[in-house]
Structure formats: structure tokens, C-alpha cells
Design brief:
Strand 5, helix 11 and strand 6 form a beta-alpha-beta unit. The protein has 11 helices and 6 strands. The protein folds into 2 domains: about 35 residues, no CATH class; about 210 residues, Rossmann fold. Helix 5 crosses helix 8. By secondary structure, it is α/β, with parallel strands linked by helices. It binds zinc ion (2 copies). The site of one zinc ion (ZN) has 8 residues, from helix 2.
């Protein structure tokens, strides 16, 4: 009902300013400019933006991981933006403000971002399955939806890729990663996910693209990638709307 009176398309999804419906991604000009679009070089492993002064292909964290012999389990990550104030307000509106409609817009952003690096056909042939990082049942009940699933569904539809939101199950809640050390983070997330038995055959030898809203410590994506690979997945990449800087390895 409220959507009829105040169509969500009339307002910038970031600052709420009135816009017209010709604006890309439902962002006003100011917010479009304020987004930290990841258009420059990025880490070939985790997708975080690289500073022009960063040597090589890897960010500091990934280089440290490689050097210490425990690289991330996923193959490659992509993030459309760096995490700043605008990205945060869009993600918060989706996750905590009940704005499920933003999931579709973020899926559109993810798709356009991937098209900047791959042809549409190449992208459609690049993965066997797209899935989303699951949230715990309690959270889903409270929120009414899994935000990553909304983003993933919109992306997969545009990319022409099969979407399976039910591949993974989150078996328990976890503590916020902020403030935890590297070992605590791993312990916090270890065993928090399971693969549905019915999906095990299709994972064997497959290329999987995992969708999430934000890549922060990498612990969650890493845990899922390691689980999928231990069940025979050949390649696991991830695609997130935003990536936050994180020096903890
Ligand atoms: Zn705005
Ligand atoms: Zn990296």
C-alpha cells in the first residue's frame, strides 16, 4: 500500500532525496559520485581495491596469507565498491530497514560490474551455480528475508545463470567478527554451515559463485568455499556489492 503512495523508485536508495526514474541504480547524482566504485586495479584473489602504490596483484592481506601458506580457499573474489558511508547506508536500508526492493538494484549493480570484466556470454558460461551466503533462521524470521539471496536472485536472473538459494544452511548463529582476532574468527565460523544432502551430487566438479552483500574479514566466504571444495567443487568465486579494508589475516 505504501509503495503506491510513495513508490520506492522515486527516492535515492542511499540518501532518500527525490529523483526521477531515469537515474541508474536509483541513486541521485551526489550519491552516484560518492560511491567508491571499484574501477581501478583490484586484488586478484579477494577483489579488494588496490592502491596505486601497491606492488603486484595481491593486496597486503592476501600476500601475507600466501606467504604464510594459508591462502583463502576461494579462487577469486569480486567487489563492486569499497565500503564507505554511501555503501553502508544502502546495505543498512536493505538489511535493517526492511527495504527488500534494494536487493534487486544491488543485483543489477553486480551484473553490470561483472560485465565490465567479462562478456555476457562468457559470464553466463562461467559458473554452474550461483548461490548466496545463508543467514541463520532466527535472523531470517526477524528480517523476513535473506538480503544476500535477494541480491543473488536478481544478479543470476540478469546473468542467465542457475540460482540455488537452498544449497547451504547456516546451522548456528555466530558472533560479530569485529574485534575478534584471526584465530577467534576462524573458530567463530567453523562448522557454521552445511550443504543440503540433496545438493551434494551437483557440487561435484562444479564452478560456484557465492553472493554476499559485503566482504569484510573473508572468514565467512572462506569457510563456505572450503566446505564446498571439500565436497568436490572445482571452483568457488564470490561476488559482493562492497569490500571493506581489513588488515587482519
Ligand atoms: Zn542520494
Ligand atoms: Zn586480497
Amino acid at each position: 500500500m505504501l509503495d503506491l503512495v510513495y513508490p520506492p523508485g522515486l527516492y535515492c536508495i542511499c540518501c532518500g532525496k527525490i529523483i526521477d526514474d531515469s537515474r541508474a541504480y536509483r541513486l541521485c547524482n551526489d550519491c552516484m559520485k560518492s560511491m567508491n566504485w571499484n574501477t581501478g586495479r583490484s586484488c586478484s584473489k579477494c577483489g579488494r581495491p588496490l592502491a596505486e602504490t601497491d606492488p603486484g596483484e595481491l593486496c597486503f592481506g592476501c600476500a601475507q596469507r600466501e606467504a604464510s601458506g594459508r591462502p583463502y580457499s576461494f579462487d577469486a573474489g569480486h567487489a563492486c565498491t569499497g565500503y564507505g558511508a554511501c555503501e553502508q547506508s544502502v546495505i543498512f536500508a536493505l538489511k535493517y530497514g526492511g527495504r527488500a526492493d534494494i536487493g534487486d538494484t544491488l543485483g543489477e549493480i553486480l551484473y553490470d560490474f561483472m560485465l565490465s570484466g567479462y562478456g555476457a556470454d562468457e559470464l553466463a558460461a562461467g559458473y554452474d551455480i550461483v548461490t548466496a551466503v545463508p543467514i541463520h533462521g532466527d535472523k531470517r524470521k526477524k528480517r523476513g528475508f535473506n538480503h544476500a539471496e535477494l541480491i543473488g536472485r536478481s544478479f543470476a536472473k540478469r546473468a542467465g545463470l542457475p540460482f540455488d538459494p537452498g544449497m547451504l544452511v547456516r546451522t548456528r548463529g555466530t558472533l560479530p567478527m569485529k574485534g575478534l582476532g584471526p584465530e577467534e574468527r576462524r573458530a567463530n565460523i567453523r562448522g557454521a554451515f552445511e550443504i543440503r544432502n540433496s545438493r551434494l551430487p551437483m557440487i561435484q566438479g562444479s564452478g560456484i559463485l557465492l553472493i554476499d552483500d559485503i566482504f569484510t574479514t573473508g572468514s565467512t566466504i572462506d569457510e563456505i568455499a572450503s566446505l564446498l571444495k571439500s565436497h568436490g567443487a572445482e571452483r568457488v568465486d564470490f561476488l559482493a556489492f562492497s569490500a571493506a579494508g581489513d588488515m587482519i589475516i
